[in-house]
Specification:
With about 1350 residues, this protein is mostly helical. Keywords: Nucleus, Transcription. Belongs to the RPAP1 family. It is found in: Nucleus.
Length: about 1350
């Protein structure tokens, strides 16, 4: 049986289709008195109509000419050499064929005019009697048709066509002379309205062209005046006026810089064509002996002319961007010499430079040099675009434009080119597209910071395609995995969403391996290929795995660019880097190791990285047979790679093997940091990498004891093996490194060593924090000796460092260096492409920033990190550092952060993570000091505000920080100082004053906000437990984040942070318990469950959630400003939708009343916009419909629920919600007995302005007339309906016929309703709103 899918079961209804509207019909010219029959005949296209209109042409006055008689049997063959029988080009009007010129010559011999002259009569060939006076032709604008124009008369069916023309002309002249100027203008306007505007525009453009070909008075031959130069015949005064209008219109489109530019723009279209080239203009004169070179063909020599100078173009229209070979944008007004090679025979040959389209075309040329040149130019353009050089001068993103045009495929094709030069240019262009050198430098500079070795994967934001949504309907598509869907996509679709994935799908890795292995290119190409591989490894862990799995790729890198033995290069810049160690290759291994523990173990054990690291670090830098700078770079990268491995608890046996070499390097640190050494920046990076290595080894050694005990007690359960290094291996380094730190703190006073000291001190502080953090967990920990040691450390190092004037000056840059406060200098940022995210670091050294040289963030973060550990061991040292929290720069910075709003993107996330670390550490230090220091406690509310703002900012990977803030600061009574300093009492007094000012009584249930706040402060520990319970689903991620934050290296699986999909907690996290209960009970069951049927503890959970929301609304309003008021109202509506009687419980009722009063304060009502859909909902109307149904089902006339439903019925909101109440849910009007005092919203917000929706007014009237809406049932809506119907019936404003009919119909129905009508009519006559309020 054959079945056809998607075939409807029933036949479609045969309803007539709507009539089609023709655009051409609307544009036709019609006349009022036109006969429809004549109009039909005119448009009849039948063959009979056509035949009946055939009229024989009158040839009585046309002269006849017989062909000339010759003695030849056939016409003579035309030869090219017979120039005498041809007419010059100027006589025949343009370029004509040889045959046409022969015919023209024959007609001239017979005394006839050429055929082309008959249709274009000029002033010279008109008879004398047809000349017209042109005295009125001046520069002033004249309306269309104000001057007479004489036509040729050709086509008239009379013998004497010229005489008939003159008679018509004289008749027109006589009639025009009898008319006044106003009558002429009126007739002109009438004619213009009847004619097609396009036809009028065409005539005016023809007149303008004729004016443009006429010369100025100074250039007329014979000194003719401007009157004589006005064209006659087809052009009169009308042509002058239309030309002036055209030039005026063009002047409005031109962005002029002065009068000269305006004149030049106007003269642009009037320039005569250049004269044809003559033999004197040729650079090489033709010789007689040259065959077929005796004829001059000017049209073929036009390309040899000199290019015209580029004119000033001030038009507002976009102009095509042109670039030179260095990627610089060439201004359209710049006149460059031709020897630069920037002129060509494409579009706009007078302009120098190449457009992007021309470069694309040139890159596919058959000439090798052209392909290389185009690819190199594209690489330079990409480099400048990534740096943001074009943002102020070009519209749109250059990088996005190139990617949309297919740049990725162009480069991929070029990589397959067999010519090495073209392939090298393609590799360089691809590297410029993918890799930003300054981004890599920024990441390297933050490697030694706290948690600096971790980074986010550079994945684009996830985007769902509409095509996939349609495919999901099919069962077969539903069963396919994400990997299969990805494989079915084309290369274009994948590359459009993710450039790196697109390149991997195009088999980029095997091609790069082939280039390195077979081509063996130049050093620059090798560096570009290694940089591309590094960028691919940063994309994601799966991309890094593909790099590792590519056949022979890693083997080629290891054998050619990280050999175990090599010879010294013969020159500083060797022609080939094959066989020499490369720092970029070591960096590639480090980035691959960052992607995961297994990838790092694979590199160390299977590929031979362990041997390379040992070989490079066991010898002195001067003994590596490399250039000093390259030796420093590769040893620095070796230390960093080893650091990443040690951060997994791997490669620690190398620490034992190379211990002596490490100690020797530490001993030479002071000598290596010579301020006059040009290699000082590289030396500093090497020392920082070494300190990072020692920090991670210390963390790993500190876990040895725990892992040893865990392996004994695990009894077969999975447990990481203990590392080979123990605490005894690392304990001896602390003394040496502490001595270094003391020396660097003292050298802050030395101007030559200040910068070096500020660079190194943070790394030493991070090491000491790791040492003391792990020391407190060891069995060998001696509390008394450690406390004395910490006191000495504080007095000799930490306090002098904090009090130093250099550090104080540096702290003043906190706010200007902050990313959160957005106080950075306003410089143009780089271009961002959604499919190719970057870090946006170009220019980071030039201005203030978090990574800039004047940034205090690395020093303050490491200092407070160490203070957190020290004060945790020695509680008595806490008060000594209260000055840090009380310093003016820190207070100003925290206040700015409390008022800031953070946005999430790849360009900010990696910087925001470091700033979040500093804010968290400041809050933890405040948590330690607020209970014991009265001065710090004065700013407790500020610290609490910052904690509330920071919590929804925390990024993936910082779940442990969020858990700690919730456990300590967020719900701490010490930080909510209002709870124990008269805050609830102040709220109660404020309410009493408000009631006295409003002069009306309020329900006692509404005067409980102060008492509710007092109860909420008592319940803070329970509230904290409630929220921590609802965040239990984050437990696994919290544990992973805790291991990374506390240095539990053997438990860390990857230093690649989770994908950047959003913050750890949503911005509306205070509503989470309420939303989770609604998702479990209200959504599937429609809110029909009773409280007893809800999950255990649901009532207590909702109560705690509402208490916390009430506390935040009263005392921490700024913390909830990121949540729109409509979102708050929508989420609180879950109280009514979760259960059938949850909102009737007394604690829930009181708290919801309090929140309702806060949301409906007069200062908040204006900001409550229900026309905007709340986040997470398609529209507020859907939620309101659910609330109406719930009210009818379970409300029992509850006043709180009724107030909740009345709030959206204000006049300024969408009438659809009012229509839903009076149209679909009229039954609720019997139980909606809320009074105006209970609603606490002015009645004017419901009655003003008068209702303009006629269907709603009819519903109002029907409910009043039928008795569905009564005063004792629904007082507020009764007054609202009465007021609007009153305003409608007695309105004096002019209205449409439909509205007037409805108004009279209402009055007629009232009149015929007898007793009810009399009472209703009496109420309607009371037009005063206050009288209406007094009725009830």
């Amino acid at each position: 049986m054959v079945t056809i899918e998607d075939l409807p079961d029933q036949l479609p209804s045969l309803t007539p289709a709507p009539p089609k509207k023709s655009r051409f019909k609307a544009s036709r010219v019609t006349f009022e008195a036109e006969d429809p029959e004549a109009r039909l005949d005119r448009h009849d296209t039948h063959i009979s109509a056509l035949l009946s209109r055939i009229i024989e042409r009158d040839t009585s006055s046309t002269p006849l000419s017989l062909p000339a008689f010759t003695g030849l049997a056939f016409p003579k063959v035309v030869h090219r050499s017979e120039n005498s029988s041809q007419v010059p080009l100027s006589s025949v009007g343009g370029k004509k064929s040889i045959f046409a010129r022969q015919i023209a010559a024959q007609r001239l011999k017979e005394g006839k005019t050429p055929l082309h002259c008959a249709a274009e009569p000029t002033e010279q060939n008109l008879p004398p009697e047809t000349s017209m006076d042109t005295d009125q032709c001046d520069d002033a604008e004249a309306p269309l048709g104000s001057a007479p124009g004489l036509v040729s008369g050709q086509g008239l069916r009379v013998p004497d066509s010229s005489g008939e023309t003159q008679r018509i002309h004289k008749e027109n002249q006589t009639r025009l002379q009898t008319m006044s100027q106003s009558e002429i203008q009126e007739e002109q306007k009438k004619l213009l309205t009847q004619l097609d505007p396009r036809l009028v525009e065409f005539v005016r453009s023809r007149k303008a062209q004729s004016v443009s070909f006429s010369a100025s008075p100074s250039k007329q031959p014979g000194g003719r005046s401007s009157k004589e130069s006005c064209p006659l015949g087809n052009v009169g005064r009308e042509s002058c006026s239309s030309a002036a209008a055209v030039l005026s219109q063009r002047a409005q489109e031109v962005e002029m810089g002065g009068n000269d530019e305006e004149e030049e723009e106007e003269e642009e279209g009037k320039l005569p064509p250049p004269p044809a080239m003559t033999e004197e203009d040729l650079l090489v004169k033709p010789q007689k002996e040259w065959v077929h070179m005796d004829k001059l063909e000017p049209e073929k020599l036009e390309w040899m002319r000199d290019l015209p100078a580029p004119r000033r173009r001030g038009t507002r229209k976009e102009m095509q961007a042109r670039f030179d070979f260095a990627g610089s944008l060439i201004p359209p007004t710049e006149d460059l010499p031709t020897h630069l090679g920037l002129h060509h025979h494409g579009e706009e040959p007078e302009r120098a430079g190449y457009s992007l389209q021309e470069l694309f075309l040139l890159s596919r040329s058959q000439v090798i040099q052209q392909r290389s040149l185009a690819l190199g130019t594209l690489a330079n353009i990409l480099s400048k675009a990534c740096a943001g050089k074009y943002q102020s001068v070009l519209k749109g993103s250059v990088t996005s434009t190139l990617l949309d045009a297919g740049l990725l495929f162009l480069l991929r094709f070029a990589l397959d080119d067999s010519v090495e030069g073209v392939m090298s240019a393609a590799v360089h262009a691809l590297k410029t597209l993918l890799v930003c050198a300054e981004d890599e430098e920024c990441l390297d500079s933050t490697f030694s910071w706290f948690r600096g070795l971790a980074s986010f994967p550079l994945l684009p934001s996830a985007q769902e395609e509409q095509d996939e949504e349609e495919d999901e309907v099919l069962d077969e598509i539903m069963k396919t995995t994400a990997k299969e869907k990805e494989e079915r996509k084309t290369d274009h679709d994948v590359a459009r969403q993710d450039v790196i994935k697109g390149l991997l799908k195009m088999k980029l890795l095997p091609r790069l391996r082939y280039i390195l292995e077979v081509f063996r290119p130049s050093p620059r190409v090798v560096q570009d290929v290694l940089s591309i591989l590094t960028r691919i490894a940063r994309h994601s862990s799966s991309s890094a795995t593909q790099v590792l799995d590519c056949p022979r790729l890693m083997e080629t890198v290891m054998s050619e660019f990280l050999p175990t033995s090599w010879t010294a290069p013969s020159s500083p810049l060797p022609p080939s880097v094959y066989g020499l160690p490369q720092a970029s290759a070591m960096k590639l291994l480090r980035v691959l190791a960052t992607s995961g523990r297994h990838a790092c173990a694979r590199l160390l054990n299977s590929i031979g990285v362990r041997e390379r690291v040992s070989c490079l670090l066991s010898a002195e830098v001067s003994e590596l047979l490399l250039e000093p700078s390259e030796a420093l770079r590769i040893t620095t990268e070796a230390y960093r790679l080893w650091t990443v491995a040690a951060a997994y608890g791997q490669a620690c046996n190398l620490y034992i093997d190379l211990y002596s070499a490490l100690v020797k390097v530490l001993q030479s640190v002071q000598r290596a940091l010579n301020p006059s050494d040009h290699l000082l920046p590289l030396q500093l990076q090497r020392v920082l990498a070494l300190l990072s290595l020692l920090t991670q080894v210390t963390h790993t050694a500190g876990c040895h004891q725990e892992l040893q005990a865990g392996m004994v007690s695990s009894q077969g359960e999975e447990c990481p093996p203990p590392p080979p290094v123990s605490w005894g291996h690392v304990a001896g380094l602390q003394t040496s490194l502490l001595g270094h730190l003391k020396g660097f703190v003292k050298s802050l006073d030395n101007p030559l060593q200040k910068d070096s000291s500020l660079t190194l001190i943070p790394a030493y502080l991070v090491y000491l924090e790791a040492y003391y953090h792990q020391l407190s967990k060891q069995k060998c920990f001696k509390p008394v000796e450690t406390l004395q040691e910490l006191e000495q450390l504080t007095s000799e190092v930490l306090f002098p460092l904090f009090s130093h004037h250099i550090v104080r000056d540096l702290m003043r840059n906190l706010r200007s260096s902050s990313v959160v406060c957005k106080a950075q200098s306003c410089h143009q940022g780089p271009e961002t492409t959604p499919s190719l995210p970057g870090l946006a670091c170009p220019g980071w050294r030039d201005g203030p920033g978090l990574v800039g040289p004047s940034s205090p963030f690395p020093l303050l973060t490491s200092l407070i990190l160490l203070l957190q550990t020290v004060t945790g061991i020695h509680k008595g040292l806490s008060c000594k550092f209260s000055g840090l929290l009380l310093s003016e720069p820190v207070i100003v910075y925290l206040r700015s952060c409390s008022q800031a709003t953070s946005t999430l993107s790849h360009t900010r996330a990696w910087l925001l993570r470091h700033e979040h670390h500093l804010l968290y550490l400041l809050l933890r230090l405040a948590h330690r000091l607020v209970p014991i220091d009265a001065e710090v406690a004065k700013h407790a509310s500020l610290y609490h505000q910052v904690a509330l703002v920071l919590l929804p900012w925390l990024l993936p990977g910082s779940e442990y920080l969020a858990h700690e803030l919730l456990s300590t600061v967020i719900f701490s009574k010490d930080f909510i100082s209002e709870g124990h300093s008269g805050g609830p009492e102040a709220v109660e007094l404020g309410e009493l004053k408000l009631h006295e000012d409003t002069h009306h009584l309020t329900s006692p249930s509404l005067q409980t906000v102060g008492a509710l706040l007092r109860e909420a402060c008592v319940q803070l520990p329970s509230i904290r437990g409630c929220f921590l319970t609802h965040l239990a689903h984050l437990e696994s991620t919290v544990l992973v984040s805790r291991d990374a934050f506390l240095g539990r290296n053997p438990w860390i699986n990857s230093h690649l942070l989770p994908e950047l999909t959003g913050p750890t907690l949503p911005s509306d996290w205070p509503f989470l318990p309420l939303l989770s209960l609604y998702e479990r009970t209200g959504a599937p069951d429609g809110g029909a469950l009773a409280v007893e049927e809800l999950p255990h503890g649901a009532l207590q959970m909702v109560t705690h959630c509402l208490q916390w929301l009430l506390l935040l609304e009263v005392w921490r309003e700024e913390a909830l400003k990121v949540i729109p008021p409509v979102a708050k109202l929508a989420r609180l509506s879950c109280v009514f939708l979760c259960s059938s009687d949850l909102f009737l419980e007394r604690p829930v009722q009181k708290l919801t009343w309090g929140l309702f009063r806060l949301l409906t304060r007069r200062s908040r009502l204006d900001s409550l916009d229900l026309n905007v859909p709340p986040p997470g909902l398609a529209s507020f109307l859907d939620l309101y419909s659910a609330l109406l149904s719930q009210f009818e089902a379970v409300s029992f006339g509850d006043r709180l629920f009724g107030c909740w439903l009345l709030l959206p019925l204000q006049r300024r909101y969408n009438a659809t919600m009012r229509l839903a109440v009076f149209g679909e849910h009229m039954g609720m009007l019997r139980s909606l007995g809320v009074t105006l005092e209970q609603l606490s919203i002015p009645i004017e917000r419901f009655t003003s302005p008068p209702e303009d929706s006629l269907p709603l007014l009819c519903l109002y009237f029907r409910s009043l007339v039928t008795g569905t809406l009564k005063l004792r049932w629904c007082p507020i809506l009764y007054v609202v309906a009465l007021s609007h119907v009153n305003s409608f019936i007695f309105s004096q404003d002019a209205a449409a016929q439909e509205v007037e009919a409805a108004r009279h119909d209402m009055l007629r129905k009232i009149y015929y309703l007898a007793d009810k009508g009399t009472l209703l009519l009496h109420s309607l006559i009371l037009s005063d709103l206050q009288t209406l309020q007094g009725v009830y």
